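Contributing new complexes? Match this layout with FE2/S2 (inorganic) cluster.
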Amino acid sequence: MRRHGFARDALIETLHTVQESFGCLDKESLNFVAASLRVPLSHAYGVATFYHFFTMKPPGAHTCLICMGTACYIKGAGNLLNEAEAQLQIKAGETTADRQASLITARCIGSCSVAPAVVLDGEMVGNMDGVLLRRKMEGWKSS
Ligand code: FES
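Output block (do not edit by hand):
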């Protein structure tokens, strides 16, 4: 916020930074950001809930993001999502009950040339297949 002179139009970038730092946006951080940037709390809350990227729930210890953009979808992202949902026993957007793994989807992560692409614990992996995905997520869930 200081870098942008506490400008109101730095709201989205600020929320990105908060989420990167703490894993999610909570009531306390939204209050702090809204007050610091002098925007109504309802506006900060609206932005945080409108954009798919932002989450108000703490993520699991591990995260699997599957790109469902057009290039990835054509190359089998739907099957990868089915595979991940079966292995983790959750649906996209959910976190396992033991809080060990979260499964999320995105529209395009900018790696179309290596579709289908996934991001596992922050590391992009291209040309993913079901066997490799299963192997990479082994041990993510306690039961
Ligand atoms: S569509 Fe998946 S990286 Fe672009």
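Reviewers usually confirm one structural detail per submission. For this one: The mean pLDDT is 93.
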